[in-house]
Hints:
There is one protein chain. This protein is of the alpha+beta class. It folds into two domains: 3-80, Outer Surface Protein A, domain 3 (Alpha-Beta Complex), CATH 3.90.930.12; 83-164, Outer Surface Protein A, domain 3 (Alpha-Beta Complex), CATH 3.90.930.12. Helix content is 22%, strand content 36%. The chain has three helices and 13 strands. Strands 11-12-7-13 form a four-stranded antiparallel beta sheet, covered by helices on one side. A three-stranded antiparallel beta sheet has the order 1-6-5. A three-stranded antiparallel beta sheet has the order 2-3-4, with helices on one face. A hairpin with a 3-residue loop joins β2 (16-19) and β3. The longest helix has 22 residues, at 59-80. The protein is elongated and about 65 Å long. It starts with a helix and ends in a 13-residue tail after the last strand. The mean pLDDT is 93.
Amino acid sequence: MSRVGKSPILLPNNTEVMLSSVQIMLKGQLGIISQKLNPLVTITNHGGQLKFDPINESREAKALSGTMRSLVANMVIGVTKGFERKLMLVGVGYRAQAQGNILNLLLGFSHPITYHMPEGVIVETPSQTEIIIKGIDKQKVSQVAAEVRRYRPPEPYKGKGVRYADEIVILKETKKK
């Protein structure tokens, strides 16, 4: 059995869990999030602890118990603290501006880029070269950050482009004649 799947999840006091045979729904101070359940894993709630058990002893069921536990643990963190990804714009003239759920980017192209945020994801721009993407769903927040980064990934010679705040770009040496 998965070692991750063996450990239970402790629910904080302000978090409610609603279990059905098809999905699990968590409600916390930041919002409500739900996840479809896999039929090979059973989830039981014992006084504020969620326990994940495989239905049978198959390899797939054992692996999915750990996967489901990780997904639900991320849901608990999402509804209590939330998730955040920070992006930095490096380059002359590179700017970002948030207007509601729209992110306007100037990345050196001949046209500005407008990115519409999906439901449940909030964008902020504290300065023109910083982008903060927030939400309760870790997968959505990370996917939006990856899509914004994909417009202009950091290039290897000067390091210009959109990068994660904690990303280290290794610069290449220029050609010698």
